């Protein structure tokens, strides 16, 4: 059986009286693309925030690479190999694409305020060059070479999403958390993004946990899908299994009971 890179154990989270998550548990196999789906307000972003450390669950644990990270801050989780992108773009609009991506690499540099003044005399210069090479690899991979010097804020939405992905990849994460990577994209941009996600999973070996509303994309690229509904886990499984489940059809896809019954009758006959 494939080892789990991430285990979420009995996580609950409330905002005042609002229960955003109730006793949610699941495991993400290393090397997989794992999608979280569910209606608006189901708790998807809350779950991603509990994994990344932006929110602390009221109870339960988040285990990453067999280490309990529940009480660690987001930066510490990033150091351990967790990268993320946000539902709303979080780039530095006035900075170039390259500088935005280098920000992602910054925390990996061993050079600090003490060794900084010794830049030319230390290994820092070599380190910086190695980082630049890795960043260039990502830029090639995501086909954004032509905009590397452009100011991020001037780019189309689809390109900015791609730069955000590049910045998350620059951390060399083992696990990447993507919050609605296709939101606001046209069909062509969605197809491109789906291909990049699959390739970063297959070529760079990065495990992906993503929230996505586009069911076509979810079905196409996910190895496993988990459904949240009113903060509770409805089910998880292979994409086909999840989509065929009557509860999911009812809760998420908005298909009425009569349609489900007639479909079940058709299958039985
Ligand atoms: N910071 C917050 N303060 C108060 N309530 C919140 C906060 N964040 C989320 N909630 C509430 O928690 C519940 C789950 O919200 P969450 O954003 O996690 O759902 P979601 O599935 O990501 O929704 P969407 O698909 O609309 O992004 C909702 O009832 C929401 O109003």
UniProtKB/TrEMBL annotation:
Residue intervals of the ABC transporter domain: 6-255
SMART domains, per the entry: AAA
Transport recorded as keyword: yes
Entry GO terms, CC: plasma membrane
InterPro entries: AAA+_ATPase, ABC_AA/LPS_Transport, ABC_transporter-like_ATP-bd, BCA_ABC_TP_C, P-loop_NTPase
GO MF annotation, one: ATP hydrolysis activity
Pfam family, one: BCA_ABC_TP_C
Species this protein is from: Colwellia ponticola
UniProt entry keywords in alphabetical sequence: ATP-binding, Nucleotide-binding, Transport
PROSITE patterns: ABC_TRANSPORTER_2
Name of the protein in its database record: ABC transporter ATP-binding protein
